[in-house]
Amino acid sequence: MDDVDAAEQDARGLVRGLDDRQVNWQPDGGRAWSIAQCLDHLARMNGFYVEAVLPRVRRAAAGRTQPFASPSPTWMGRTFVASMEPPVTRRFKAPSARVVPASQMPGADALASFVNSHTRYRELVRLCAGIDPNQVRVPNPFFKWVWMRASTILLVIPAHDRRHLWQARQVLAHPDFPLGAGGRGH
Q1: Rounded distance, CA 17 to CA 62, Å?
Q2: Taking the model in full, what pTM does it have?
Q3: Separation in Å, CA 151 to CA 54, 154, 159, 163
Q4: Residue among 5, 135, 145, 141 at smallest CA distance from 71
Q5: Domain coordinates of the chain in residue numbers?
Q6: What CA–CA distance (Å, rounded) separates 39 from 34?
Q7: Engineering a disulfide at 136: which of 39, 76, 150, 185 sits with its beta carbon 3.0 to 4.6 angstroms away?
Q8: What are 138-182's pLDDT values in tens digits?
Q9: Could you tell me which residues come within 8 angstroms of residue 83 by beta carbon, excluding any fewer than 6 positions away?
């Protein structure tokens, strides 16, 4: 939970003092995502992953408590989590149109969606504290033939957050980032 707390603080810092024009500015002539798009994408992805695993974790947790088992993904799960970590060296396409971000949105809405996406994640973490998350398996919400451990999802969400928050910081640092009314920007 410390990782998502840190991600939320990072996101708040990124948008603080920016107007909607700045938050929606896209580098590379609109070919790269804006800060708002990074946050919107994260909110959408977090929702898909948590909703995929939460019902199975709830069933596993019903009436059972065990000592907490540290998340221990498979080799494939560890590789997947590692591929999300910044600095980004390999770009991926969004796995579904359902997680492609909106082209424009108010910065406050993008931030609120991102922060709210962690509410269910925190519920997942609390439920996993009473089970072995390495034993709960679910199909990937985008690639149904790929099965994932709940422990992988526990780790991939914060890693994916870090990836796109890093990407959003690159937007803010871009030499063409527009100057805002409050003076923030280049």
Answers
A1: 45
A2: 0.84
A3: 12, 5, 13, 19
A4: 135
A5: 2-173
A6: 9
A7: 150
A8: 888 788 888 889 999 999 999 999 999 999 999 999 999 998 755
A9: 90, 92
At 85, which amino acid appears?
E
**Separation of alpha carbons 184 and 172, rounded Å:** 9
Can you name the CATH fold of 2-173? Answer: Four Helix Bundle (Hemerythrin (Met), subunit A) (1.20.120)
- 80: its two tokens: 């997947």
Supply the pLDDT for residue 71. Answer: 66
CA 23 to CA 41: how far, in whole Å? 14
Angle, helices 35-61/150-173, rounded to nearest 10 degrees: 170
Q: Are 138 and 55 in contact (CB under 8 A)?
A: no
Comparing CA positions, the residue from 20, 9, 13 lying closest to residue 110 is 20
Cβ contacts of 122 within 8 Å, gap of 6 or more = 1, 4
pLDDT less than 50: residues of the chain: 186
